[in-house]
Specification:
Blueprint (H helix, E strand, L loop, with lengths): L7 E5 L5 H13 L4 E5 L6 H14 L3 E7 L4 H8 L4 E6 L7 H8 L8 E2 L4 H16 L3 H16 L10
Parallel strand pairs: 1-2, 1-3, 3-4, 4-5
Bound molecules: 5-O-phosphono-beta-D-ribofuranose.
The site of 5-O-phosphono-beta-D-ribofuranose (RP5) has 10 residues, from strand 3.
EC number: 5.4.99.18
Family: Belongs to the AIR carboxylase family. Class I subfamily.
Protein name: N5-carboxyaminoimidazole ribonucleotide mutase
Length: 165
Amino acid sequence: MSDKAKLIALIMGSQSDWDTMRHAARVLNELEISFEPLIISAHRTPDRLVQFATGAKAKGFKVVIAGAGGAAHLPGMTAAFTTLPVLGVPVESKALSGQDSLYSIVQMPGGIPVGTLAIGKAGAINAALLAASILSLSDNALDQRLTAWRAAQTDAVALSPRDES
Ligand code: RP5
């Protein structure tokens, strides 16, 4: 693996979040954006969180995508320790279908922002695309890849519906 700094930290509270966050990873791969996936739990590994968040900017990350479910403190606590943009993905929880995750992430007090996406897969995909938009402001080649990705998505939409079964 290359020693070059990865642009995106793709962090999540648990292995169980990967089934959602892998969709962000897929989009980042499609856009050829380097990223590092990490399991960091605000509750179970608080020291790991502090070490990561306080050192993220120095390590070269430009954006943090943080997915968590339930009492989802990971995005907010990460944002408390860094001025990097933090994009929060509420993972769909079993007990409350991700509404707990959403409210935990979106209701940050004024002063510590977390850009909050939709619950689940759509949020993970859009977090990757939003991170790409942020990075593309200073990366013309990425801007072109992102524009092409969007055009391909548009081209893939059929004009008429068809029977799928
Ligand atoms: C959160 O608790 C994680 O982000 C995960 O969504 C949720 C459940 O974690 P596990 O019990 O599956 O490890 O911290």
